[in-house]
């Protein structure tokens, strides 16, 4: 969680007591909640906002209130796959069929596979997948990992600076402490100029989680492999599996997850339609990475 006094068992217990007291303070500060806001603000959620603001209750309260206003207006939990499916046709962002060594959900991003021009829809697609990644976290795990593959990337399909800034803002302000690690794999030299601008939008905590990996740099490769099983990593990312993104099969998986999401939030008017659609699709993903032979 954090370390104010040391690493002994007694110190860890003191840290936990301190954290619990801060969570209680934040609960009192934000007051009674109802509906989706009540369901969203679990103890684990409050802890993430406190961690993001260094356990300052006032700053955490402001951050959380801003998120609740954003979620009330944007309604990320109500986005359904059929609304953003066109954005996923090339597999430019999708949930991998494996977890990292810590059990975190993995999102694979391939900016070189950009296929649309609407910034609004692109961000909506990413928000949908962030919500989906959280929905599929194992018990006790709060974070996800990103693998960003720069194969095919160039300035012609580069994310506009405005879009990058908006994406970073949403991730940092409304999904605090959700990103565990992000590996940028083999970005071309020309990307460095873009990165010099983008990195100023990142807070220090997020910046420290971004790691560059180059195939010829042994240390960076070993760092990435310390987070992922080599058998799971796609060959494009230096691993031993073959990346076979199948949009049709991934769409079937998302239809199942849309039903799970509707059940979780419990107030989706389209739930009956989702049940009907989900009954017609297979529950198992076929877009997973498979071992190379």
TrEMBL record:
MF-aspect GO terms: phosphatidylinositol transfer activity
Pfam families: CRAL_TRIO, CRAL_TRIO_N
Coiled-coil features, chain-numbered ranges: none
Domain called CRAL-TRIO: residue spans: 81-245
InterPro entries: CRAL-TRIO_dom, CRAL-TRIO_dom_sf, CRAL/TRIO_N_dom, CRAL/TRIO_N_dom_sf, PI_Transfer_CRAL-TRIO
Lineage: superkingdom: Eukaryota
Name under which the protein is recorded: Phosphatidylinositol transfer protein 3
Organism expressing this protein natively: Cicer arietinum
Gene symbol of the encoding locus: LOC101510155
